[in-house]
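Review form for a predicted model. The reviewer records the input and the model, then writes brief findings.
Reviewer: anonymous (R2)
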Amino acid sequence: MTASYPAFVAPRLASPRFTAARWLVALALVALLAGCGVNTIPRDNQAVKAAWAQVQNEYQRRADLIPNLVSTVKGYAKHERKTLAAVTQARAKATSIQIDASTIDDPDKLKRYLAAQDQLSGALGRLLAVSERYPDLKSSQNFLALQSQLEGTENRIAVARRDYIQAVQKYNTDLVTFPGRIWHWLLYSDMKPHANFKASTPNANQAPEVSF
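Model under review:
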């Protein structure tokens, strides 16, 4: 059925002024929705994914340093086979567990991932302690360069983990507070709270001491 209007109304509906007014109203509604935070939940959800990607990036950076570190230590401390093997095995386990955006909220997988990374941290700590028994190793330029890179990477890991925790906290808070709770109910009911993680070892949010 086609709507009919009185003759004196129809020209107004077709006039440029009326069309412009409708566009202004539409734009005002869009601005109002944006101002009320309708985009906050998806934006913060993307921030969580980006923060987690950075966590993985920093852990991978550390994993990439380890083969050179093991090779350097082996050149000066051939008798430390058990310690070297432990680091190699821990690295293999840590790099075998991957969590992407589709599995970021699997608490068991997240726990296994972080436990493997913590195990690698412990194995690295024991390997670095070996250098105290080998003065030539401690003075090796290659070893010193790896020390500096590893120390910087551990600091970046600590920062990336902190940023992820904060991003998840902000996103999860959006879902249960006003006005995010309303938008979640109306538009984003399929978006669930993200799993966060707690430090599994004391002071895990701090970079480990790397001294030689």
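Findings: The first helix runs from residue 10 to 14.
Further findings: The two ends are 85 Å apart (CA to CA).
Recommendation: see findings above.
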